[in-house]
Specification:
The complex is a heterodimer of chains A (230) and B (132). Chain A has 230 residues and is an alpha+beta fold. Chain A is globular and about 75 Å long. In chain A, strands 2, 3, 4, 5, 6, 7, 8, 9 and 10 form a nine-stranded antiparallel beta sheet that branches. Chain A has two domains: 63 residues, no CATH class; 149 residues, no CATH class. In chain A, β4 and β5 form a beta hairpin. With 132 residues, chain B is mainly alpha-helical. Chain B has one domain. Chain B contains eight helices and one strand, in the order αααααααβα. In chain B, α2 runs parallel beside α5, α2 packs antiparallel against α7 and α5 packs antiparallel against α7. Chain B is elongated and about 75 Å long. Chain B starts with a helix and ends with a helix. The chains are: A alpha+beta (230), B mainly alpha (132). At the A-B interface, β1 and α4 of A face α3, α5, α7, β1 and α8 of B.
Chain lengths: 230, 132
């Protein structure tokens, strides 16, 4: 009896290596003949601390716009107007946007839209207006009509039409889109592009398919439905 | 019921369950159809692949707890990866479930044999309880 209990205790399969007299006095251990386990906090922390740090790092990087987040465009064009746009670090090149598969807005486009990608590192806009035609009514967003202007960091717009009175400083036209360095974005190799140190556009009017920005501040935001677009 | 409790006590039950739930939650948040995934390629496939492997790791922790260290390390890395691939980690919920589950699994240990000194201490306490 004693030898057998010794053997099992060394193998570690039963938690009760004690003498028969003692096992009779501790009924809890004799009820559970298997090995139980539990979480050791210090051991869990060995993994929890670096995991938390990594997760926080990922979120901060995403918030700063350093990590890209992919999404499909809806295929609904929207109009953006502003009385004035001032930007630093401007780049522009051609690109192709994809709609979600089977989107009702595909039409005969095959779900792809040829767009002009405009990237501006730091932009301020006066009297921004954005409208989406929902068929009969327009979703209208206005901002920056007061003293404070709309500001954006790492603003990227994918547009099909752009009009306004533009002025550029130190413009370079005809670069390869993959060599752009004045703004935050670069295009594919072998695509025509242009870039400039600063950009100033008055009476801006854009038809866009997508807009992304790392930071987009809209002071005095007003959202409403309206019969007329911008 | 007693059998289930015994089964549960012998493995990192909550850790595995949370990791599996996290993977399932992220899979549920994915709405892209298979056609879109095939169209986008590896980027789209990863969105499904990572939470699916998370789910498998969670189940393996439950049914093969001997390899829990490997599964939990895989689980935590996959959970963090879903932030980039799968809707910001199932809108954060699945990511948190996965990380917490992996950490619980990593920290889980079966009860060791009491050390010789502890055994003696316990015995001394018992005798004192019997003869106050």
């Amino acid at each position: 009896m004693a030898s057998s209990s010794d053997a099992t205790s060394s193998a570690g399969s039963t938690p009760d290596p004690s003498e028969p007299s003692e096992s009779g006095s501790t009924p809890e251990t004799s009820e559970v003949p298997e090995r139980r386990g539990r979480v050791r906090l210090r051991r869990a922390a060995v993994m929890a601390v670096p995991a938390t740090a990594l997760a926080a790092g990922l979120m901060i990087l995403t918030a700063q716009g350093a990590l890209g987040v992919q999404f499909a465009i809806s295929g609904m064009p929207f109009t953006v107007t502003a009385t004035e746009l001032n930007g630093e670090g401007f780049a522009q090149f051609g690109g192709l946007d994809h709609m979600a598969e089977g989107s009702p807005n595909e039409g005969d486009t095959g779900g792809q839209v040829l767009v002009v990608v405009s990237a501006i590192k730091k932009a301020t806009l006066t009297k921004l207006c954005q409208s989406v035609d929902l068929g009969g009514t327009n979703l209208l967003i206005r901002a920056g009509e007061g003293k404070e202007k709309v500001s954006a960091v790492n603003l990227t717009t994918d547009s099909t039409e752009l009009s306004g009175d533009a002025a550029f400083d130190n413009i370079e036209i005809g670069n390869d889109a993959s060599t752009l360095d004045k703004s935050h974005a670069q295009g594919p190799k072998g695509v025509f592009s242009q870039q400039a140190d600063t950009v100033h556009i008055a009476n801006l009017r854009q038809t866009n398919y997508a807009t992304t920005a790392a930071v987009f501040k809209l002071p005095g935001l007003k959202l409403s439905f309206s019969d007329k677009g911008c | 019921m007693v059998a289930f409790r015994r089964w549960r006590a012998a493995r990192p039950f909550w850790g595995g369950l949370l990791l599996a739930l996290g993977g399932a939650e992220i899979l549920l948040t994915e709405k892209a159809s298979l056609k879109v995934v095939m169209h986008i390629g590896m980027q789209g496939l990863a969105g499904y692949l990572l939470p699916a492997v998370m789910l498998i790791c969670g189940l393996l922790i439950l049914f093969n707890p001997a390899q829990r260290l490997f599964y939990s390390i895989c689980g935590v890395l996959l959970s963090l990866g879903t932030w980039l691939t799968s809707n910001l980690g199932g809108f954060l919920v699945g990511l948190l479930l996965g990380v917490v589950g992996s950490c619980l699994t990593f920290g889980w240990l079966p009860d060791q044999e009491p050390r010789q000194s502890r055994l003696r201490w316990r015995r001394g306490r018992q005798t004192s309880a019997q003869h106050p």
